[in-house]
């Protein structure tokens, strides 16, 4: 996965950059078809904002979280992404299972018609 990090109003420390990259790499466990991630980290006074955009085939997810600490803003954003990716993955699995069962039903109907 390609990761692009942009900061506004502060300089990014190497530790925070590594922390974000590690968290985003873990998301591939929940959805393996992620192509790229773009993170915009903003500091406005006491507020720290993490806005993360994930791009995958036929899908784009955007989350934005605000906290008093950059690490906690990143954690909240990644948790929200994890929840959305899991929901999307489960939804696609349900549709695939439903399609398979419809095909199986059609095959049974054809077998019954042949027997008659």
What does this structure look like?
With 116 residues, the chain is of the alpha+beta class. It has a single domain, classed as Double Stranded RNA Binding Domain (2-Layer Sandwich), CATH 3.30.160.100. The chain contains 2 helices and 4 strands. Strands 1-2-3-4 form a 4-stranded mixed sheet, with helices on one face. The radius of gyration is 21 Å and the shape is rod-shaped. The protein starts with a strand and ends with a helix.
CATH architecture group name: 2-Layer Sandwich
Number of helices: 2
CATH superfamily membership: Ribosome hibernation promotion factor-like
CATH topology: Double Stranded RNA Binding Domain
| Fraction in beta strands | 25-35%
CATH class: Alpha Beta
Low-confidence stretches: none
How many domains make up the coordinates? 1
Spell out the key features of this protein.
rod-shaped; 116 residues; alpha+beta; 2 helices; four-stranded mixed beta sheet; Double Stranded RNA Binding Domain
List the helices and strands and how they pair.
Elements: E1 2-8, H1 14-26, E2 34-44, E3 47-56, E4 59-67, H2 70-115
Parallel strand pairs: 1-2
Antiparallel strand pairs: 2-3, 3-4
In short:
With 116 residues, the protein is of the alpha+beta class. It has helices at residues 14-26, 70-115; strands at 2-8, 34-44, 47-56, 59-67. The protein has one domain (2-87): Double Stranded RNA Binding Domain (2-Layer Sandwich).
């Amino acid at each position: 996965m390609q990761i692009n990090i942009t900061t506004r109003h502060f300089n990014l420390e190497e530790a925070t950059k590594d922390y974000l990259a590690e968290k985003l790499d873990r998301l591939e466990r929940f959805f393996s078809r992620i192509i790229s991630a773009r993170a915009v980290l903003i500091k406005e006074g006491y507020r720290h904002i993490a806005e993360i955009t994930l791009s995958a085939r036929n899908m784009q997810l955007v989350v934005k979280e605000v906290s008093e600490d950059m690490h906690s803003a990143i954690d909240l954003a990644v948790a929200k992404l994890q929840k959305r990716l899991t929901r999307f993955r489960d939804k696609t699995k349900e549709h695939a299972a439903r399609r398979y069962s419809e095909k199986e039903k059609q095959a049974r109907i054809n077998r019954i018609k042949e027997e008659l």
